[in-house]
Amino acid sequence: MSSDPLPPDVATFIGDHFRSIDEIEVLTAIIDAPDRWWDARLVYGELGIPVASARALLDRLAALNLLDIRFTDEVRYRFRPGTGELARTAARLVAAYRSNHAAVVRACAAAPRGVRDFADAFRIRRNGNR
User: Do 70 and 37 contact (CB within 8 A), yes or no?
Assistant: First the structure.
């Protein structure tokens, strides 16, 4: 594993868009199987991320214009970025995650969190869970 700094576009991409390593791990799994349709239960089965969290992570990646969405008995997602540049940057992020894991973790941890993220930590959901 490398300890080199991340490419500037990857560091910016992380800082601007990613809140957790779990998001990057889900993105990595989805990029590894670009023709596979993913749902929250499949993410749980493959990565062990609880279904509710997996659903939120998939929704977030879709909101970043990284995923295509299909509505069936479940909402399903697959890797289909809205632009070629977004696809290339996501692929570079995954490559950096594999080759320079520590730098990606540091960049994700150092990413500024907005007021909305702070407020979301205290939001009460319908089912009474935070």
Answer: yes
Collapsing DSSP states into helix, strand and coil, what is residue 25?
A: helix
pTM comes to: 0.81
Write out the H or E segment, with its range, that includes residue 71. Answer: strand 67-71
Number of domains in the chain: 1
In a domain, 129, yes or no: no
CATH code at 99?
A: 1.10.10.10
State the sign of the Cα–Cα–Cα–Cα dihedral 40, 57, 13, 82: positive
Phi, psi of 33 (to 5 degrees): -135, 70
Q: Which domain holds residue 33?
A: 8-120
Per-residue pLDDT of the chain (130 residues), as tens digits, is 556 789 999 999 999 999 899 999 999 999 999 899 999 999 999 999 999 999 999 999 999 999 999 999 889 999 999 999 999 999 999 999 999 999 999 998 887 765 445 444 444 444 444 4
**Tokens linked to 19:** 């809140």
Report the distance separating Cα 98 and Cα 36, nearest Å: 21
CA 111 to chain centre: 14
- 3-class state of residue 74 by DSSP: coil
